[in-house]
Amino acid sequence: MNITIIGAGAIGGVIGAYLIKEGREATFCDINEDHVKQINNNGLQIDGPLGSFLVNAKAFTPTELLHENSQIDILFLCVKAQHTEEALKPLVPLLKKDSIVVSLQNGLNELKIADLVGEERTMGCFVNFSADYLEPGKILYGGVASLYLGELDGTFSPRLSKLQEILQAWGPVEITDNIWGYLWGKLSYAGLLFATALVDETMASVVRNEQYRETLLELCTEIIELAHKENITPLGFDGWTPELIFPRENRNDVILKEALEKLAKSMASNKKTKSGIWRDLAIRKRKTEIDAQLVPLIDIAKKHGLAMPLTTELIKQIKEIENGTRKMSEKNLQELQDKYKLGVI
C-alpha cells in the first residue's frame, strides 16, 4: 500500500514518523529541499513528551514525486491550508479510482479537496495535536490530542475502519458521523488562537486574562453562531466546549470560568505554549492560515446576513502583523475590545 504524506512539517512529520515507527511504509513529500535531503540522509527525528525517536524514511520534493510516477493509495495532505490546491492538483494523476485523500489540516479543506478529486475519494479528518517544525529533519511534538475521521456524508464505511487502524500507529483515533461538527468546532477555537497571536504571550496567559474574556468569547461565538446558520452543531474537543459559549443566553459564568481555566492549564503544560499562528508571525515571518480559515467565513456569513464584526477586525489586525504594519502587542487586544464595546466595528 502506497501511503504518501504531502507536507512533512509539524503534523505530517509526526504522523509519518509514527507510521514508520510502527512498521508501516510511508513516503514523505515536501517543498523544503533541505528538509527532504536531511530526511533521506539522516532520518526524521521527533522530540516529544514521551521522549525522542528517529526514523529512517524516504522523502521527495513534489517534482521528484511526480517523476517517480507511483500510484498513491492513501494521500495524507498536511500542508498549510492556503496551499491545498497547489499541493494536491499536480498529484491528481497519481491517484487511483479508489484512492483516499485525507486532510490533516485546519479549516474546511475537504470542500476544496472534494472539488479536485471527487467526494468519493475525500475523507474528512479533524486533528488537534500540536507540533512545530524546528529545522530540517527535526520536529517538536506537543503530545497526543484528538483525531477524528469521518465520511463527508456522515455514513460509516469499511475504509473508515481501515484508516482508523492505520492511524492508530500514532495514537487514539476516533470515528465520527459528524466530521463537520468537529471542523467547525475547531474553527471556533481557531478564532481564540488567532486572537492569542495578537500579543507576544503564551496562549494560556491570554486565555487566563479576564480583562479581554468577554470580547474573545464573543469572537468565538460569532463563528459558532455561523455554524448553526449552516445547520451544523460545532462539537467540543480537548477542553474546548462550544456549547458552554453559545447560545449566549445559556452561558453559566461559573462553569465557563472553570472550563477556561482547565483549558489554560492544559495549554500551559504543553511543550508548545504558543500557537502555530504566533510561530508563523514571530519566528517564520510568513503568512498565517487566516485567508484559508477565517476569511472564507465572512463570505458565508454574508449569505446568512450575519454580521461578524470581531472576526472581521481580527482578520484585519492579523493581516497587518503579517505585512509588518502592526506589531504584536496587548494594545491589539485592547483595540479589539474598545472597538467592539464602542460599536465602531
Q: Any low-confidence stretches, pLDDT <50, length ≥5?
A: none
| CATH level-1 class of the largest domain | Alpha Beta
Helical/strand content category: alpha/beta
Q: From the 3D structure, determine the CATH topology of the largest domain.
A: Rossmann fold
Query: Could you say how many structural domains there are in total?
Result: 2
- The overall pLDDT, averaged over residues, is 96
CATH homologous superfamily of the largest domain, by name?
NAD(P)-binding Rossmann-like Domain
Largest sheet: 8 strands, mixed
- The string of secondary-structure elements, in order, is EHEHEEEHEHEHEEEEHEHHHHHHHHH
Enzyme class: oxidoreductase
GO molecular function, one term: 2-dehydropantoate 2-reductase activity
Domain Ketopantoate reductase N-terminal: 3-153
EC number: 1.1.1.169
Q: What's a concise summary of this model?
A:
With 345 residues, the protein is an alpha/beta fold. It contains 15 helices and 12 strands.
Give me the secondary-structure topology:
Layout (H helix, E strand, L loop, with lengths): L2 E4 L3 H12 L4 E4 L3 H10 L1 E5 L2 E5 L2 E3 L1 H7 L3 E6 L6 H5 L6 E9 L5 H9 L4 E6 L2 E6 L2 E6 L3 E4 L7 H10 L6 E2 L3 H18 L6 H6 L4 H17 L23 H17 L6 H7 L7 H4 L1 H10 L4 H14 L7 H13 L3
Parallel strand pairs: 1-2, 1-6, 2-5, 3-10, 6-7, 7-8, 11-12
Antiparallel strand pairs: 3-4, 8-11, 9-10
Helix pairs in contact: 7-9
